[in-house]
Amino acid sequence: MESVSFPRIVELDTVTGLPPRKMLDHDLPVLLRSMGVSGLPMCSIMIDIDHFKKFNDDYGHDIGDLVLRHVSSLIRKAVRFRGEAYRYGGEEITVLMLNTTGAEGLATAERICSIVGNSEIMTEVDGAEQPLSVRISLGVASTDTVAGSALLVSSDRALYNAKSNGRNQAILFRSDRERVVTTTVIDVHFPSRTAITGGNYILLKKWFSRSDPTDIEAREIKDPNTDSSEFAEGPVPPFGLVEAEIRGRVSAIERRGNHTYFRFEVKSYIIDLMFKYIQDTRNANG
């Protein structure tokens, strides 16, 4: 039977210094067969650098590549000999770990998250040294709870949950949570220009319902990752504004003059809470 040993001694990706995607595609079925024969679990961790585009946009692609190499090096060192880190594509990295349960994989992912978050990259900006901080999100899955054929898909779903819950964290895939949690799309009007873009996870801080909880006008929105808020002026209904945080993802956005309209994806159970917030606000204000 073909075998794979870590660390992989192969031609490495020139940017990250990790084995490339084609090596991941080769190693995954080999390792799944090996662990299956031995009756041992195998874990995958999908990792994404939070707000990676901002490094490229603000500092240039050379700094973006530096960030990617820095994070990749820390991850590879953290799993050395027990596993391997591969460049999955773009700023995404996949870790495969042998004889590792979901709980053990989550502990490793949390440790990696902490290592990266506590590190700094020194770079020169406008002739002066400047430290850059990096954060990552991680999704974990193991064959002790999912089929080998679903390993990468499951860890990718967990990564999506980590990012939708605020980033800079690790989440373990749970099939029961995936079945139960669904999303609903809300239409939001923000009567001002805004820096948010499609894919952003934000908070509605002050808002009111124009017809029902799926049709909202907002007066304050906040980016929890930068801790910055944006405000808009405009008429307020007689019953006032709801001041209750609603977390969600901007799935689409359109700007019309000084107004912003976006589709806001929230967990479906949030709609019931919004009904309650609206009713409570109207009762409190007569």
Tell me what portion of residues adopts beta-strand conformation.
Answer: 25-35%
Low-confidence stretches: none
CATH architecture name of the largest domain: 2-Layer Sandwich
- CATH evolutionary superfamily of the largest domain: Reverse transcriptase/Diguanylate cyclase domain
Number of strands: 13
CATH topology of the largest domain: Alpha-Beta Plaits
Structural class label:
alpha+beta
The residue fraction in helices comes out at 25-40%
Count of the domains: 2
Topology order in helix (H) and strand (E) letters: HEHHEEHEEEHEHEEEEEEH
Coarse shape: globular
Average pLDDT reading:
88
Biggest sheet descriptor? 5 strands, mixed
CATH secondary-structure class of the largest domain: Alpha Beta
Number of helical segments with 4 or more residues:
7
The order of strands across the largest sheet is 2-3-1-6-7
Radius of gyration: 22 Å
Distance between the termini: 75 Å
Please describe what this structure looks like.
The protein folds into two domains: 21-180, 2-Layer Sandwich (Alpha-Beta Plaits); 183-284, no CATH class. It is built from seven helices and 13 strands. The chain has helices at residues 21-38, 52-59, 61-78, 102-117, 151-164, 175-180, 269-284, and strands at 42-49, 83-89, 92-98, 120-125, 128-133, 136-142, 170-172, 183-190, 201-209, 215-223, 228-231, 246-256, 259-267. Helix 2 (52-59) packs antiparallel against helix 3 (61-78) and helix 3 (61-78) packs across helix 4. The longest helix has 18 residues, at 21-38. The protein is globular.
